Amino acid sequence: MSPATAVDDSVAHPRARTAFILLFALMVVNYLDRQVVVAMFVPLKATWNLQDSDLGLLSAVTSIVIAFGAVPLALLAERWTRVRAIATMAIVWSIATVASAFAPSYTMLLGARALVGLGEATFGAVGVALLATLYPHRARSTVLGAFFVASIVGTTLGIGGGGIVVHHWGWRATFLTAGLPGIALAVVFMAAMRRYRETGAVAGAGVPAPAVRAVLAAAVRPRTVPLVCAGSALQLLTVSMIYAWVPTYLARYHGLDVRGAGLAAGILVVASGVGVLASSALADRLGRRVPSARVFVPALGASLTFAIFTPTFALVPAGTAQFVLMTIGSIVMMSSVGPGAAVVQDVVPERVRATAAAVQAMVLNLVGLAGGAALTGALSDRVGLQAALALVPIASLAAALCFALARRTYADDASRAMTDPAWRGSIEVPPACANSMR
Fold first, then answer.
1. S-S: 179 plus which of 98, 150, 197, 272, CB 3.0-4.6 Å?
2. Which helix (H) or strand (E) holds 395?
3. 271, pLDDT greater than 70
């Protein structure tokens, strides 16, 4: 039995579209607030005479806090309600972004960026779990891929739009502008989804909570989970490198000003969004005939990422040809986003989807998003930025290997998660919750 036929393929929940639109908007703001600091690297360096490693830490600290906070806060969300948890997190990270505008020193700004990470820690995980419950299996990779496109939109606005605001009004005004929309969206989301929250359909609403140890065990037991988490994290080293350091690279090596570098980098981010949608849709379409398509597509994309980026930065001189190759690489580097998230949701019971997604987010943020920005900054201080950009994509080769190994376990794990009573019974799923599983 393939994963595509092992589950109910019914239509989406009536509130699914509303939830998707609002979660998409919140995800845009989430990544805008997270990535906008990248557009400020040049003025921040001048303001406090910072090293590249200091700038890299400003980008990485948010992901580090997200990594360590993801699982504990997801466990709390499993016992609360997903709607209330999402709204609360949005308010926290937005207020922290506004506070960044008033930081009197590098240390205070670093602390404010850490608070942004605390607010964002499990938003993606809870959002993924909610959407995976609202939408049927056949569309899961596409829906989650489309959801994560919001991160691309937010990153584009943060890097490209942030560069424009910094150019005209300075970095403090940019933080202030970025932080305010999230508060309003959180209130709208809570109001629009309050009836859904009250139905108890969300796991954790009016349902007895299983033991923490049982939830964690069920979330990490499938053999596919650690392989996909490792592969996705290794691939995100390259993604984080591109997002965090390409604006600075374009300013130093292509001779662009802050606004021009931000806009050019925005083109690469948009290209990566195309890659998310294309790879997610391809994985779902191929999955109708090839059960392992959701891990095959990321394996191929990771291999191509190394094959494009390392030669581009090591051998191709700065100019139009290099930028074109960077754009192509940006499309293929995002091939693990939608399929990787869908795979983890496929192989765990519905009751622990938020926790499983949080485990994945912890690994992705700590190893991938934080590691890529910090590692590139550290390498840049030693061998130069261009050499660092050529070295980091080697990690994508290891990512391809992890996805290739996951092909051997994915189909069995997905079928077991939905058909083996012992697999689901280990977390004592109540009947009301079990009936809502997809």
1. 98
2. helix 395-406
3. yes
Closest CA to 45 of 56, 30, 33: 56
pLDDT tens track for 92-138: 999 999 999 999 999 999 999 999 998 888 788 888 888 877 887 77
Helix 140-156 × helix 337-346 angle, to 10°: 140
Write the CB contacts of 384 (distance below 8 Å, at least 6 apart in sequence).
Answer: none
So what's the pLDDT on residue 210?
A: 58
Class of 15-434 in CATH: mainly alpha
Q: How far apart are CA 174 and CA 166, in angstroms?
A: 6
Q: Are 57 and 244 in contact (CB under 8 A)?
A: no
First and final CA of the chain: distance in angstroms? Answer: 16
Using the predicted structure, report yes or no on whether residue 26 has a pLDDT greater than 60.
yes
Domain boundaries, the chain: 15-434
pLDDT digits (tens, 9 = 90+) for 37-60: 888 888 888 889 888 888 888 888
Burial of 386 (0-12, 13-18, 19+ CB in 10 A): middle
Distances (CA, A) of 430 to 327, 433, 434: 49, 5, 6
Instruction: List, for residues 319-340, the tens digit of each pLDDT value.
Output: 999 999 999 999 999 999 889 8
Q: What is the DSSP letter of 422?
A: H
- Non-local (6+) Cβ contacts of 64 within 8 A are 114, 117, 365, 366, 370
How far is Cα 319 from Cα 149, in angstroms, rounded to an integer? 28
Instruction: Kindly compute the dihedral angle of the four CA atoms of residues 288, 293, 294, 298, in this order, to the nearest 10 degrees.
Output: -150
Radius of gyration of the chain (CA): 21
Asked whether the beta carbons of 94 and 145 are under 8 A apart, the reply is no
How many CB atoms neighbour CB 48 within 10 A?
A: 12
- Model confidence pLDDT, tens digit, residues 152-204: 888 888 877 888 888 888 889 999 999 999 999 999 998 888 766 433 334 44
The amino acid present at 361, given as its one-letter code, is: A
* 121 contacts 366 by C-beta, under 8 angstroms: no
**In whole angstroms, what is the distance from residue 368 CA to residue 393 CA?**
12
What is the rounded CA–CA span in Å between residue 231 and residue 335?
A: 11
